[in-house]
Amino acid sequence: MNNDQIKKLATIRLGGNWGNCIALGVTMLSMGLLVILGEVLIYHSYTMIEPFDMNYLDYLATPLGGGLLLARVIAYYLMFVPEIGYMRSIYASLSNGVNFIGARWAMRHQGFGYYVKTICIQTISLIYQAVLFIPLLLAVMAVYYYIEQAKAQMNTTNLMMFMLSLLIAIILLFLFIFMKIKLRLIPFILAARKDIKITHAFALSVKLMKGNTLRYILFLLSFAKYLLLCLLIIPIIVILPYYNMSITIFCQSLVTEEKLNEYISQKEQKA
Predict the structure, then answer these.
(1) How far apart are CA 159 and CA 170, in angstroms?
(2) Which end of the chain is more exposed for a tag (fewer CB within 10 A), N or C?
């Protein structure tokens, strides 16, 4: 199935479910805006407290401020991750020809186990990504540091260190994006076969993406033309269902039953 066929099938699968998918996207967007509004209110509420002789960033550096921020981040994580998994499952069901009501009914009968499993999958995925994200973060901090050093004193050493840290940051950024693409199929693998372990799903995702990474990137770039359209005419919330459905069908086209059975048989032979 080529990219044009995938997009055409995405339009067919959305059909009369487009409005429901838009409502689903609006719900997620509303949750994000609510979190942002809450953080802004917390910030402004703190700045109105006169007895504290420190700015907000200094407050976050204290055990109380840092602890409360960490608690909020964990709460947001536990709130958003299952919702994102829920949305992906809805699109996966719709791409298989199930209507929106049937997809929601199936999700409601998943129970608390689905919530825990989604959290575990995302947490393990973040641990894998942290291998590159933490060095990337340090490299970006180094870039800003040497920018300030160059502003204070322009010399060959500071300039060379800035260029080196910038080069390292760019390389790590591309590696991080490459890793995220390689792990993109994990939710679809686990949804297709319940008997595959989470750790095996990571290895299988990398294997199935081999040879398809460039195709996936080009497929994503094909949606760039809609960005200008969203800014001029159509709100992005209307385009998102089409984008999500297309990505879902693309990933499902790679996760075939034949490939999953082949991988499982290879694992059993090695065992």
Answers:
(1) 17
(2) C
Residues in the chain: 271
CB 116 within 8 A of CB 75: no
Q: What angle do CA 140, 142, 147 make, to 5 degrees?
A: 100
Instruction: Write the CA distances from 228 to 3, 78, 223, integer angstroms.
Output: 21, 34, 10
Does 190 fall in a domain? Answer: yes
Q: Is residue 195 part of a domain?
A: yes
Domain hosting 101: range is 3-110+183-270
**pLDDT tens per residue across span 202-255:** 888 888 888 888 888 888 888 887 777 766 656 777 788 888 889 888 888 888
Structure tokens belonging to residue 116: 């825990």
CA–CA dist 236, 226 (Å, integer): 9
The answer to whether 86 and 107 have CB atoms below 8 angstroms apart is: yes
User: 268 phi and psi, to 5 degrees?
Assistant: -65, -35
Assess if residue 207 is contained within a domain: yes
